[in-house]
Amino acid sequence: MHSESSGVSRRTAVAAWTTGVVLLGSIVVPGSAQAAPADRAGTTDVGAQAAWNLLYSEDFSNPLNPGNAPWVRETHSNPFDTIMDDSGQWYRNDYGPDWTTAFNSFDTYRKEFPVGQNGWLTASLSARDWDKNGAIEAPPSITTQAQGGGNVAVLNVPDHTGGAIFRPTNKLPSQYRIEYKLKTIDFGGKRNGTIEYGGRVNGYSTQGCKTQHPWGEGSNSPGWSGDASVPYCEWQDVRSGPYGYNGFHFLSIVDFANPAPRNNHFWHYRRKVLMDSFSQHPDRVGSGTGGRVCNSNTNQYYNYRDGNFNTVNMWISGLPNWNPGPGGLAGNSQWFMTNCSGGVAEQQLSSAAELQPELMPNQFYTFAIERDATGYTLEASGNFARVGQKTIRFHRPFIVNNAPIWHYNSEPGEYDGRYNNNLVQNDNHGSTTWPNQWPAGSAYPDYFVIGDLYTNVYEGSASLTDIRLYTPAPPSTTNLALNKPATADSQCAASEAPAKAVNGSWTAGNSDKWCSLGAAKWLRVDLQSNQQVGRLVLRHSGAGGEKPAWNTRDFDLQASTNGTTWSTVAAVRGNTANVTTHTFTPVTARYLRVNVLAPTNDSDTAARIFEFEAYTG
Q: Is residue 392 within a helix (H) or strand (E), and if so which, with residue range?
């Protein structure tokens, strides 16, 4: 989480429509007569691949072997960049020679070791040697232990100047799903109503000073002197005060290879999409709201200060401020998605939910990110505060209304250079221009990060398991609904019966459809036995040759094993597409139903479905 609010004017970027339980949506089928506009909620895909092939899975049943990997001193001789990397030029230009003195007052050590089958995961650790004698005072660790009949990896960071993460050893595929289970979390936030628990304050030890030194906010940031020559304890306090916050990266996608823990401002320029926590100290909230949190049952926000401070933020990084000005920081715009915004990404600190750490490890949370050909899907599941057990899921296309996800192109052909620019710093102690920050022909393969990746803030421990990487499986081609018994609330004419929606045809004229003028418009298909269903396809008015304005606008898709108890697998609002495809985690169903809520996009009151198809995935 960025530690200062964005000054960029508020804009919107659309993700998918939100349901009360699972966020699902639709995708325009290539070649359909009319594509849905990119800025309409409910018409973008949030699960373009219902079926997945498991590529790797790590349940930590085998002990890790970090002992064979030595701690190695970081010389900063080969920085990833010269902008905000640990020894970055940005800080020298801002703070001057005193910053270099502060930076050289300690040594940084790193340790990395492979994990899992074929070493597909890498555990990466960072620690600080305060007196530069070769002995790390509070080394972080990643170990395994038994928990609840299984095994977990435990990430322990006893001092906020350390870091511990999991990352992939190699770049991710062009399309994928990465997921894991978070079993415990202790990186700040309230426990049983208080920020002070277990002898700690917001997850931090009460011993000694804990500040952002030497990677402070920009020298012009309010609330501190901006003088890099001051003693360590006079830098911004991370434990309490106006800069006090803790947190954890549940799952982030970043734009460079071999990610390792580094200072927090570095990461603000390197993330694509992410889910994280932001556990502010009450001092930081002060008399303000602290931001807002969505109650996804009511779709109403409540103030952060009235919550438990264990937030789940689901967001994307956008374009940076190309010239922040003296005493500022390089960083990207931040766009948050919640049910309360209808899945629309907004430039206002908005949390999608709050965890309940007191329930863990008896209950756990699952975090997942998917990348398909059109964008990213962020997903969090578990028993959330105020709303109960849910899956919250949002899809964000790579570009919406000329607002891109930062460095989304994992391959050169995915991007044409339209957002390229120079990053310019004109500061008190120097000026630097970093040209071509997003040129045509560039590529930024995806890497994920899980854990504490900040080396000047965040302290605590967490346990997790079942890290899994999936790649898309080929879609099934057998239409389970073809010529199966179909019923409906009514039909407009004898020639427009429910059976017409499952006859395998939609181009035989205006009567090759089911039509209803009933008060409650619904179409039900009996698959005649329980089947695994993970993808539904609807062909609306425009697909059959009638008016595209009569395409079904608002509808719910439901599944049942008994024809009585129904679960909603997709809820679509604002559709204008001729053909919509709806994918979701496969469910067992004998009966499928379309509930039409708004039949058209004009004043016509008839519902029209030319074909209803069902597939396993």
A: strand 388-397
